[in-house]
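Two entries, shown back to back:
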Amino acid sequence: MDIEKRIRKRLEQRRQDGNYRILPRTSYGNDFYSNDYLGFAKSQQIYERVSDLTAVASLADGKLNGSTGSRLLSGNNVYVEELEKELTRFFKSDSALVFNSGFNLNMGLLSNVATDGDVILLDQNIHASLKVGAKLSQAETYYFHHNNLEHLEKRLISLRKKKDGLFFVITEGLFSMDGDIPDLISMLELCEKYGAHLIVDEAHSAGIYGDYGEGLVAKYGLEKKVFCRVITFGKAFGSFGAALLGPNYLKECFINFCPSFIYTTSMPLNSVLTTTTALQYRKNSDQEIKTLLNNCQYFADQMDTNFIGPIFSFQFKSLEILKKCTEECKKENIKLLPIMSPTVQKGKERIRVCIHSFNTKEEMDKIINILRSYK
């Protein structure tokens, strides 16, 4: 079989399974699918402030467009270093290291800290980037049932009897597809009991939870107890990129040994300054967060479900019903797409509704009525 036939066979199988993907074109409409929870990606104030800062910084740095190289060559500058200092203050961390994306960071994270003889324990619903990172490491990888501390403890007890290496337990702050959160305090207690290092991906919880959006780890005062955190800027902060938060020696390790940090062109000034500005705005965004929480509570009450955060997940009796529901949403100018396997497990395809601070009651009522008619 030649390469074209092999690839076309895979694509045809995906079509038959009903989950063939195409790239959707962004369109105008009522946004219920993006991760722009606080509307920062649309903020005219942030845009204008960043435009002014970028113009001055670009002239001072001599780089009007790109960053010209990796951080270890020509791509480092005072602005990204200042961003990392601000991140340590904002998230109450010993250090911060900026990456170009959360996937880039997570791909390098586990493959950089775990090695032969170590054990990685992942929540079964963890983001794909951490699964890839685990595969790239030489450690043995196991999964525990989603948010199930009893199953996690059984895994830890069983594996501790056989393995002497380092143990890593990985979870998310706010799960991107389920919209739920783990019991971080109890999970940390288990990790301490069995000598495991807890890593928390706060991609979706940062910016939402805590007094100023510091995330769940900081909200519960666990900053010094977890091994490290992953923060991304493309969700509530409306920007681009990610950061590793943890002890100083971990930052030094990544600068020296992490390929996904070392061998990539660094972030351009505009993105660096957008994130720096977004952090400053988040400290004074009481109205945005209040409106977001009120919207989430209204939506949860109307749909008779629990309010945990801005992500709501709805499964249907069949794929046909799911697709009909999303088609009706499209007709009503509601921006929403079905979540299909392999993004979620086969048989657990769903509609993922993201609530934002800028959604109006009228917009929410439209999607509420449609969802009710198909449930």
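entry 2 starts here
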Amino acid sequence: MSRLSSRHLLGLEGVPKEDISRILETAVSFREVIDRTIKKVPTLRGVTVLNLFYEPSTRTRISFELAEKRLSADTVNFSASTSSVKKGESLRDTVQNIEAMKIDMVVVRHRSTGVPYFLTQCMAANIINAGDGAHEHPTQALLDMFTIWRKYGRLDNLRVVLVGDIKHSRVIRSNIWGLQTMGASVALCGPSTLHPVEVEKFGCDVYTNVDEALDGADVVNVMRIQLERQQSGLLPSQREYTNLFGITKDRLKRLNKNYTIMHPGPMNRGVEIASEVADSDNSVILDQVTNGQAVRMAVLYLLSGRQEEEGM
């Protein structure tokens, strides 16, 4: 197959194994590109990409911008705070006016679930979801999987524990769908107040005791505790969360010998993860950041259809 089964990347739920494998395999070549002295290829020359961010972002936005520039694409950055949205313009009118300027691809982040899908209904451009509400964040999960795959040479039969705010995390959802599709065993752990309704429908082992969850794990992906939500009474205190669910050096003894510590960032050091764990030799947190560029380059390339023009 020369391209992905869909012309958009809206999430990983329902995405076939072949598509995920193709993205990961393609990312290998782009990982080599960003390790070069000259970190640029002409692959997407002539393609215009709009970064449509309605939510604040540092890592994801910079990662996409670098991925686009390293593929030689033309990039346009949209900020809702300085746009006609402030004058009452609708999302549909905004994107259709922008598309009239001949935009080929759109990378969108929005606080509302379903916005990436909505854009596919009113634009001809390829749409890439960079995070929508508490729904999905597919490229974060893909870079997480790529990082694991590079270390172990596989994803199947690995035990991956996702610890944190299961209820609100779009990263956790995308990781669940992607990892399960690739044959990994996925476990979820967090306070019961941060479990979504019918959490068992994810098909994962679910824990409220982190020590039990970590037993025999190969990978621990620690999610950010969203401090801005703590006022709603979902957590008694940060200190109690750290005592019950924080990933500390003592808890690492429960993991398999060649274990891996991950975190999508930004980290609340000393809350969900201890600094000595985040900075340890088994941590691949900075590798995740670097790998994110390669994975996003692969996604942009595969969705663009350029590989067909090149006869790949």
